[in-house]
């Protein structure tokens, strides 16, 4: 991994024949091949691949060193060494990117400063006049960026019900440049049929890119590139890092031209992930499997607990989810985010504020359990009128389940439900009051 200042004649010759250049004609930083190339070796189970890495560190460091350096000295006045400047490339970031490419089943992965930074890089592939088709239940920040592009960059954005593949195909045209999907959607936990939409999109317009935000599931539970997506991205702030101690975003694809274009934007705008955060993300990824397994198991117990006490719960691990079969036809697990309604905004506020173990916080994917009201918090950037048009229940409570003891989480939630007056207590236990019959039910 580390290199001496003076390169051997063979390495110098290799640098001279470096043929890959960026859009400006500059030599590209190190190849995007996975850190543990699969060619010639058995592919292990994902839990193993997450921790297994190979590097050529000169001291055999088992954890990737943090190359906390903005610049890299060159061996000749022509430059041309593997790295010159951390905005363009850094060994710690490259190591992470190669590892991510491997676990995301991609030939190229790129790491940037946040999930929104990742979407910014992807949407810079668009030109004025291009059309984007996306969902009507989306993370608030995604909605905000798309609205900015619509209002300022001449990009036409269609928000349709992506849970119905026909709604997407109805608006596809030769101007469609991108179809942007989230599944399960945040926060209504609706499921989107990626293979059907990808197939229909590519059939109707072979140039249109299908982009999937995989933040909710992570590569542990879904590989969108394997089921028709052209680009996958996720917020590394969530499950990939797992501890809410960094902001990060990752992008992956299997088309080298697309990868080079997005790398160009990262180098040109300077949004690549810092060496220190690359190190932390790499460390986080190694425990993704055990964290996700525990978080998911806890989420399942909590979803069943709430449903059995009369709450309307949105979670794809529950058979009552209207798109249960569709979800399981694509994914390897249900994830650890669920939402439920109470029928009353003030009641939801009291529940959220009565919890102790559950942190009142935006975000998800952390080892700690979090509780929030999306319409007030994570999705507040979607204006109230639009939220109403999209039938986002203002009383919705989102639970992002961590790795604590499930019994403690359920006890804390039970106490909060009773204290907030959300349930009728009887000698046999307790049961939710009737949720307003008019409020929206989870629907396909
Ligand atoms: C589904 C989804 N995508 C993208 C993002 C953006 O990620 P970040 O906060 O890392 O910018 C978030 C949350 O912030 C999210 O929930
Ligand atoms: N104030 C932030 C809110 C971030 S929400 C983070 C996460 N995606 C979630 O769904 O909780 C903003 O305006 O972006």
From TrEMBL:
Location of N6-(pyridoxal phosphate)lysine modifications? 238
Which GO terms of type biological process are on file? 'de novo' L-methionine biosynthetic process; transsulfuration
Task: Name the EC number(s).
Answer: 4.4.1.13
- Which reaction(s) does its UniProt entry say it catalyses? L,L-cystathionine + H2O = L-homocysteine + pyruvate + NH4(+); an S-substituted L-cysteine + H2O = a thiol + pyruvate + NH4(+)
Cofactors: pyridoxal 5'-phosphate
Cross-referenced Pfam families, in alphabetical order? Cys_Met_Meta_PP (PF01053)
- Entry similarity comment: Belongs to the trans-sulfuration enzymes family.
Protein's recorded name: Cystathionine beta-lyase
What species was this sequence derived from?
Answer: Parathielavia appendiculata
């Amino acid at each position: 991994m580390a290199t001496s200042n003076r390169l051997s004649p063979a390495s110098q010759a290799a640098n001279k024949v470096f043929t890959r250049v960026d859009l400006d004609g500059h030599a590209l930083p190190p190849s995007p091949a996975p850190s543990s190339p699969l060619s010639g070796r058995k592919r292990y189970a994902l839990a193993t691949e997450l921790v297994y890495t190979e590097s050529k560190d000169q001291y055999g460091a088992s954890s990737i060193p943090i190359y906390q350096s903005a610049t890299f000295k060159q061996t000749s006045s022509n430059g041309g060494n593997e790295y010159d400047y951390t905005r363009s490339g850094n060994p710690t970031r490259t190591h992470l990117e190669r590892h991510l490419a491997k676990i995301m089943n991609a030939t190229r992965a790129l790491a940037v400063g946040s999930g929104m930074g990742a979407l910014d890089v992807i949407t810079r592939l668009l030109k004025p006049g291009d059309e984007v088709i996306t969902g009507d239940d989306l993370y608030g920040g995604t909605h905000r960026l798309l609205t900015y592009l619509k209002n300022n960059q001449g990009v036409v954005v269609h928000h349709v019900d992506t849970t119905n593949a026909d709604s997407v195909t109805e608006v596809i045209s030769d101007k469609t440049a991108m179809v942007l999907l989230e599944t399960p959607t945040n926060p209504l936990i609706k499921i989107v049929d990626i293979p059907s939409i990808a197939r229909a999109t590519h059939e109707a317009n072979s140039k249109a890119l299908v982009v999937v935000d995989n933040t909710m599931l992570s590569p542990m539970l879904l590989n969108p590139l394997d089921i028709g997506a052209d680009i996958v991205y996720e917020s590394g702030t969530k499950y990939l890092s797992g501890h809410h101690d960094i902001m990060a975003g990752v992008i992956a694809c299997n088309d080298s031209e697309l990868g080079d274009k997005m790398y160009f934007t990262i180098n040109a705008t300077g949004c690549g992930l810092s060496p220190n955060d690359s190190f932390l993300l790499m460390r986080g990824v190694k425990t993704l499997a055990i964290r996700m397994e525990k978080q998911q198991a806890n989420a399942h117990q909590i979803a069943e607990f709430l449903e059995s006490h009369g709450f309307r719960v949105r979670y794809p691990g529950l058979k009552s989810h209207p798109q249960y079969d569709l979800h399981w036809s694509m994914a390897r697990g249900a994830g650890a985010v669920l939402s439920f309604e109470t029928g009353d905004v003030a009641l939801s506020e009291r529940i959220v504020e009565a919890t102790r173990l559950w942190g009142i916080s935006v975000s998800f994917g952390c080892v700690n359990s979090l509780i929030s009201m999306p319409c007030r918090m994570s999705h507040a950037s979607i204006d109230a009128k639009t939220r109403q048009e999209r039938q986002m229940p203002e009383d919705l409570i989102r639970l992002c389940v961590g790795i604590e003891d499930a019994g403690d989480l359920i006890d804390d939630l039970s106490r909060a439900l009773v204290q907030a007056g959300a349930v009728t207590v009887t000698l046999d236990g307790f049961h939710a009051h009737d949720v307003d019959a008019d409020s929206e039910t989870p629907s396909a």
